[in-house]
Amino acid sequence: MPDRAQNAAGAQGNAQDRPGFAVRPGRRPVPGAGPRRPAGPPAASAPQLDAVSTIARIDTDHDGAASRQEWVAYGFHDAGFTAIDTDHDGRVTVAELRAFRARNAKTDAERAALKAENPKLDPDITIRMADADRDGAVSEAEWVAYGNHGGAGFAPVDADHDGRITAEELAAFRKAHPPR
User: Fold this and answer.
1) 39-48 — which CB contacts under 8 Å span 24+ positions?
2) DSSP 50
3) CATH code of the domain made up of 47-120
4) CA torsion angle for 32, 37, 42, 45 (degrees, to 10)?
5) Chain Cα centroid distance, residue 115
6) Are strands 66-67 and 138-139 parallel, antiparallel or unpaired?
């Protein structure tokens, strides 16, 4: 019959073969107490998505904005929705999310990322996000609701002056007017 020392040694040997178990000499295995990792700098957090991508992921009914229900269903806090929805219409638009992020940017890197965000947008994504009625183009009312400027801000983009902006018109406008 094996003695107590042999049982402890056998338990240690078996535990070493199983990942997730750590054994100190003369002790039983401890589940979940695997080898310690060396201390180092904390892992960098994932980069924040731009406002358009964020709203696009949340906006399940494709109306160009996130409702409170969509916001919470996505996993964000209700209090965050209230803080961002500055016009209190029950929807968070891309413009409101951008403004919120700008107000809360704490580092130069965050501010630079926000400044660089607009020129990098794909015109197709912009049009899909702003096109509330899903007709493939954006009216001036949709453009304003999306957070852009109507009138003087809409007319130059609407190259054929039909009262609608297409992805092609937006791409041509951005190419002709690169950001400064």
Assistant:
1) 47/113, 48/101, 48/113
2) P
3) 1.10.238.10
4) -60
5) 16
6) unpaired
The whole-model pTM stands at 0.48
As beta bridge partners, residue 31 has 21
pLDDT, tens digit, for every residue of 21-55?
444 455 554 444 444 444 444 444 445 677 878 88
Alpha-carbon distances of 156 from 49, 130, 142, 159, 160, rounded to whole Å: 29, 17, 16, 6, 9
Residue 127 vs residue 41, higher pLDDT: 127
Please name which of 71, 59, 76, 72 lies closest in space to residue 129, comparing C-alpha atoms: 59
Question: Among the CATH numbers 3.10.50.40, 1.10.238.10, 3.30.413.10, 1.20.1300.10, which is that of 122-174?
Answer: 1.10.238.10
Neighbouring CB atoms inside 10 A of 3's CB total 8
Cα atoms in the Cβ-side hemisphere of radius 13 Å centred on 149:
6
Q: Which of 126, 137, 132, 146 is nearest to 53 (CA)?
A: 126
Judge whether 47-120 and 122-174 match in fold. yes
Specify the 3-state DSSP secondary structure of 92.
strand
